[in-house]
Amino acid sequence: MTGSLFKSNFWSTDILSNIGYDTIIHHLNNGRKNCKEFEDFLKERASIEEKYGKDLLSLSRKKPCGQSEINTLKKALEVFKQQVDNVAQCHIQLAQTLREEARKMEEFREKQKLQRKKTELVMDAAHKQKNLQFKKTMDAKKTYEQKCRDKDEAEQAVHRSANLVNTKQQEKLFVKLATSKTAVEDTDKAYMQHVNTLDKIREDWQSEHVKACEVFEAQECERINFLRNALWLHLNQLSQQCVTSDEMYEQVRKSLEMCSIEKDIEYFVNQRKTGQIPPAPILYENFYCPNRNAAAPGKATGTNLARRGPLPVPKSLPDDPDYSLVSDYSLLYQ
Fold first, then answer.
1. Per residue in 152-176, is it b (16+ CB within 10 Å) or e — as a string?
2. What percent of the chain has pLDDT over 70?
3. Which domains are seen in the chain, by residue range?
4. Model pLDDT for residues 12-31, shown as the tens digit of each residue
């Protein structure tokens, strides 16, 4: 904490100037704006985290991922989808945490705003009173100086009328001189009173200015510390999210380490095997010689069907009633 830099470095030699005070107020307004920007950043980041978490959750629960896989790899994929689901839940939880941090930032801004408002009201009143009294003092000075010039002119008029015979006119000049002297005394007294009042107001204003500087500097130190810690906490939350996600993914890696190619192949064979004896070779069968079963090399074989033997060769016997010769027939022409 510095404690005294503001009250030592924000003055002006012009009594009407509030440049030091205005500079501090402008800086505090920027600081409040910066807090609001970080607050909005947290809210936007929370919306992004929430949307990402919900999209990831929908992906994990609705999109198939190796659903027909078997045995150890199937278990690894189940762990994978479950951990993706867990990561999605973590992102949704992070969104809620970020919104809570944004709410704290908003509360801090409003608290400082109310604290500043009290001091600003006091300073605004002090500035108005100082400026008003300065104007009154300058008006009183102007009146006083004018009365002094009037008195000087009256004195000169009296000196110029010393040789006049008209006593009545001389009396008027003396009366005017006396009146002007009285006016000078009155305005001088009023002017001095305004100067004294202005000095008292100036001292009060300076005292309030010092108090305001101390309040504002303390607020600025508090704001910088609060924003710094809020940003630090935000980064810790993001880092923790990464650590948590990695721990969940590590569960998947451990499950993958238990995956066995040999066991999955063996499991598939045991569950889906169809037999251990392959089909026998198909033999060649001659259409005319069914007993010759040797297959000719390079020749396709047919089905093993029963075949008829060759037809008998008829014998041409003239006396055989079952046969006739062509010469036994004659052609008839119509």
1. eebeebeeeeeeeeeeeebeebeeb
2. 85
3. 32-265 (1.20.1270.60)
4. 999 999 999 999 999 999 99
